[in-house]
Design a protein that fits this description.
single chain; 440 residues; sialyltransferase cstii, chain A; 3-stranded mixed β-sheet; globular
């Protein structure tokens, strides 16, 4: 609740009494008035600071003409009346214990480049380095705070994990995630060697074996901060471009590029009719890797009988309709191996829900790429509170995590990052080198 200095002072100073015969009106001297004014400012300032310390808000200043929104972890709310909205700037609630206050314009900076084309080296000024360092501290601090929040009890996926949280395995994050062996199902393996679904699994591998290594790869997050990023040419310059679910390129080419090599789809996108898997053009002429998590350590036979969302029917229809389609299903056991790798590398309990499509995609790409750029996965100074670049949903849970163990994922990716802070937090790109995995 906003605390106004005047209202507060009215509660702490006696009301003025009406003059009577025994109570004359006394006009204070100038010095008294100055003392009263100073006291009022001091008390009001202290109350405002105390109130700010207790308010759970995240402010982003977009511009003075935009409407004011409030978004929670789960669902956003538009202030219905102008007088109900905060007067300072758009107001986002991150969590009950959150205190995340800043104006993004304070942290943005642009630099000149020495050189031409892709070899250009940004000349980062001291002021820009300072701005970037402050923004990095804000983002990493918020992700760390999220990571340390109590994990809600959940038995949905029957997760069992026994390693002490402070006992971290040796080696790099790349090595540990590579050991998780995120992979697709094969028609050669049981039970698919003899059941009906196996006849629909493609014979071709997920990636062309003739060019299966030493490639440049990019993972394109669907984040709202891609809006006005102008990263399209950079994205399209990679050998493999990975996108997710139904994220479009048409109409957004300047920001997200036009090239798509592979799409990673969750089972809801495969199953639900509004995503038009069988008819939408964006699912044609690309490699598809669909996933459904199943339960932790669940045998494949049980998962096939009871998936989270029954993606198998539409998978079979798609493969029948487009016989040359390179449409694969990710092994659900490997998804939970990736979750276990993430928990192994995190010193706090993480949410016992499956990792994001982005983290699963990273596991798929590590064996086949020389390096992997991840665009707008860790928030840059373009962060705007939007969940996706292609819609207007305001939901900071998409940025900092509300259901997936997203904070843990992003902190691990940042540990694996080889790019400069300017590249990560101003340009919006993380780089992970995977050409040293043979040393794991």
């Amino acid at each position: 609740m906003r605390v106004h200095g005047i209202a507060y002072l009215q509660g702490h100073f006696p009301r003025r009494q009406k003059p009577t015969a025994t109570n004359r009106t006394v006009v204070p001297s100038a010095s008294c008035l100055w003392l009263l004014l100073f006291a009022a400012i001091f008390v009001a300032g202290g109350v405002a600071a105390d109130a700010l310390g207790k308010r759970n808000v995240f402010y982003v200043k977009l511009n003075t003409t935009e409407k004011t929104y409030k978004a929670s972890d789960e669902k956003p709310t538009l202030w219905s009346k102008e007088q109900d909205a905060p007067r300072i700037r758009p107001h986002f609630s991150l969590a009950k214990t959150s205190h995340f206050l800043f104006d993004l314009n304070r942290y943005r900076c642009e630099v000149a480049s020495a050189g031409n084309g892709t070899a250009a080296v940004p000349l980062v000024s001291a002021d820009c380095r300072n701005r970037t360092a402050l923004f990095r501290a804000k983002i990493i601090g918020e992700l760390s705070r999220r990571l340390k929040e109590p994990v809600p009890a959940s038995g949905q996926y029957q997760v069992r994990y026994s390693r002490p949280f402070q006992q971290r395995p040796l080696g790099t994050g790349q090595c540990r995630l590579r050991q998780a062996n995120v992979r697709v199902l094969s028609w050669k393996e049981p039970p698919f060697a003899w059941n009906e679904l196996g006849t629909y699994l493609p014979v071709t591998p997920l990636f062309d074996p003739d060019t299966a290594t030493n490639r440049s790869c990019v993972i394109v997050a669907s984040a709202g901060s891609l809006k006005r990023s102008r990263l399209g040419p950079f994205i399209d310059g990679h050998d493999i471009v990975m996108r997710f679910n139904h994220a479009p390129t048409e109409g957004f080419e300047a920001d997200v590029g036009a090239k798509t090599t592979i799409r990673v789809l969750n089972s809801q996108v495969v199953t639900k009719p509004e995503y038009r898997l069988l008819t939408a053009p964006l699912f044609r002429n690309v490699t598809i890797a669909a996933w459904d998590p199943g339960k932790f350590d669940q045998p494949l036979s049980e998962w096939l009988a009871n998936p989270d969302f029954n993606l198998f029917e539409n998978f079979k229809k798609f493969r029948s309709q487009y016989r040359d389609a390179n449409f694969h299903i990710i092994d659900p056991r490997s998804i939970w191996r990736a979750w276990t790798a993430l928990q192994d590398l995190t010193p706090f309990p993480i949410r016992q829900n499956p990792p994001t499509s982005g983290f699963i995609g990273l596991g798929l790409l590590l064996p086949v790429c020389r390096y992997i750029d991840i665009v707008e996965y860790i928030p840059s100074t373009r962060m705007n509170g939007l969940c996706h670049y292609y819609d207007e949903e305001l939901n900071l849970g998409c940025t900092f995590g509300a259901w997936h163990p997203l904070a843990a994922e992003k902190l691990l990716v940042f540990q694996m990052n080889a790019a400069s802070d300017y590249t990560v937090f101003q340009q919006g790109t993380v780089r992970i080198y995977s050409d040293t995995l043979d040393q794991c």
